[in-house]
UniProtKB/TrEMBL annotation, chain A:
Species assigned in the record: Paraliobacillus ryukyuensis
ABC transporter domain location: 2-233
GO terms for MF: ATP binding; ATP hydrolysis activity
Cellular localisation: Cell membrane
GO terms under biological process: daunorubicin transport; doxorubicin transport
Protein name, UniProt field: ABC-2 type transport system ATP-binding protein
Main location: membrane
Automatic annotation (TrEMBL), chain B:
Topology of the protein relative to the lipid bilayer: Multi-pass membrane protein
Keywords of the record: Cell membrane, Membrane, Transmembrane, Transmembrane helix, Transport
Protein name: ABC-2 type transport system permease protein
Start and end residues of each ABC transmembrane type-2 domain: 169-421
Family, as annotated: Belongs to the ABC-2 integral membrane protein family.
Keyword Cell membrane belongs to the record: yes
Location in or out of the cell: Cell membrane
Assigned GO CC terms: plasma membrane
InterPro entries: ABC-2_transporter_component (IPR051449), ABC2_TM (IPR013525), ABC2_TM_bact-type (IPR047817)
Taxonomic placement: Bacteria, Bacillati, Bacillota, Bacilli, Bacillales
GO-annotated molecular function: ABC-type transporter activity
PROSITE patterns attached to this UniProt entry: ABC_TM2 (PS51012)
Membrane-traversing stretches: 20-41, 225-248, 273-298, 304-330, 342-361, 396-418
Amino acid sequence: MLETELLQKKFKDQLAVDGINFYMEKGESIGLLGPNGAGKSTTISMISSLIKPTTGDIRLNGKSVVKNPQLIREVLGVVPQEIALYEELSAYENLKFFGRIYKLRGKELEKKIHSVLNLVGLQERQKDLVKNYSGGMQRRINIAVALLHEPEILIMDEPTVGIDPQSRSYILDMVRQLNEERGMTVLYTSHYMEEVEKLCDRIYIMDHGKIIASGTKEELKSVLSNEETILVDMNPISKELMQTLEEDDEIIQVNEIDKGMKLIVPKGSNKLTSIFHQTEAFGVQVTNVNVQVPTLEDVFLHLTGRTLRD
Amino acid sequence: MFEFLKKDILILSRNRTELAILITMPFILIAILGFALRGIWSTESEAIDMTVGIVSDDHEQEGLTAFYQEVDKLELPQEEKQSLKAVASKTAPFTLLRDMLGTDEVSDMVTTVEMTESEAKQALEDEEIAAIVTLPANFTYKSLLKMYIDQGKGSAIQLTVEEKGSIEASIIENLINSFTENLNFESAISNVTKGQYQDSAQPMEQLGGTTTVLANETTITAMQYYTIGMAVMFALYVASMIASEAYVEKKQHVFDRIILSGKSSFAYLTSKLISTTSIVMIQLFILFVLSSIIFQTFNQTSLVFWLGMLLISFLLATCIGAFGSLLTAITLRINSYHINNVFSGGITSIFAFLGGSFFPITQLPSMIQVIGEWTPNGAALAAYVEWMQGSAFTDIISTLIKLIGIAVIVFMISMVVFPKRRSLS
């Protein structure tokens, strides 16, 4: 349905997106993962025709979007990371304004406003000014505006940033419903790995303007199929200890986490005994140990050397 | 385009600060300037309406007869005597004074009532009249004798006022002085020419000062002037206000949403033109109506008058709409709202000064006047003033064309400056 070919964007001397290839089939839900500055937003802006690629092409059903941006605009709904609404207008007035610029009129417009307000659960508060909404409610109206003209493709750029767990859960359920029940094609970017794991059929991982990995969740996790993750909570957190463990050839990766460290080691390598010896030698008390199969977060960490929120 | 206009009006109506700038502030300034500077607007002839009592102890016909007798005693050829009598009969001072006070120009301001001395004193005390002009006994005889034969001391007109130095007293004093000086001047000529006195059928036309004031044009009041002056000045703020809104739209990515809906950048720019134009029209309407209701600024009921005002307002609004588009284009081009601060904080004040919003630009050097006439507010102010003074449509058409020209040029520049779609983000 939608594909990019060697898509590249340069801002003066800085290469923001470096020749990415990417595709989406109709009805798919695609996750685009990457830390800040990876090039996700630039990629989304190019796909949605807001900025022109320096080189490369974007094709919708085989036709170039770069040459004819109107092709994608007719079928696209974009939920930007920012609250792209008029704060001095009510939810209803915002929806009416954006509906009218999408050439919706009269009863059809009223019907669609009613429909999206129901979908985002804000029917009762539709007359309130947007500036008086909570962050979660503003995010929901932000999504409602993008859905008003019933797009075939929905691009969501971090739609759950900075909101409460309840609103976040509501939005995730809504996106899943749109994808599964209405067959809407979704491109979803997030810092939250669990959101992408929950919603997306396939995932692209971006870093430094490039796609460094892609595939289904299972395919990505298979990158670390021969490894296991050991989470060690310790007191105090000792950087010297971690440096020493990093020098161990059998330990693939050591990263500091909230309460201690995360180690990736070959499956069945029995490194626990060695780790306990080292902690004792450094006078560090181990408070908890957890051995688990690698998650997508681990894959990301493995591929980029940093966490998603870095 | 209507959806953009509706949205802009809704947002504006909920912004108290902007409303205060666009409506409340100009209205307060109209009130302050209109009342405070009322006194220095000497052209406000409609503010002067006084009654003057004329007390005459003179008998003109008897005076003339007595003068003829004196002429007969002179050792002059009979022909010259007849000529002198003829001139004197046409220039009898009381008749001339009555004629002067009865001219259209003077009678618009001064109503004369002939009364007895006691009636006049009572009327002056009761403030029913502003002054008493007293012609003493033998005024005609003594005046003619002094004027044409240079005998005796002449006769003086006595002026009695209730309050020395008041505007009314000054005006009547000025009128009488001018009249007297004029008579003295003519009699001096008569003496020089020794009877070859030229027949002066319209001696009063030389009565200086007032002639200028009482031209054929309808004069406008300070309140009217400052209603227009402040309205055209504060209308300029709409342009920067709309452009600032465009900056917020871009910053909050609402602009992206508009572009993604398929609206072209030209349509977006045109929407800014229409919104600015419409809001300026609404602003001018509110200011003119409020000023008319509260200060009785515009009492005209003629449809033609209001159609003219509507046309000038529309062209001014369109011109400011074009400036709104230009500021929007620059704001999006440089990705900064500072240009709007410069416009509202500096350029508007300069335009207002050059355009005559604070005082008429006729008091400024001609070079500055020319520049002022090319500002949208200055051109519109000139058109409004001319129209309110009763000028014909043909007299203001060049100014209206100027407004159209400014609007077209500024909007074209804004299209050139406006960033192309792909370089917006």
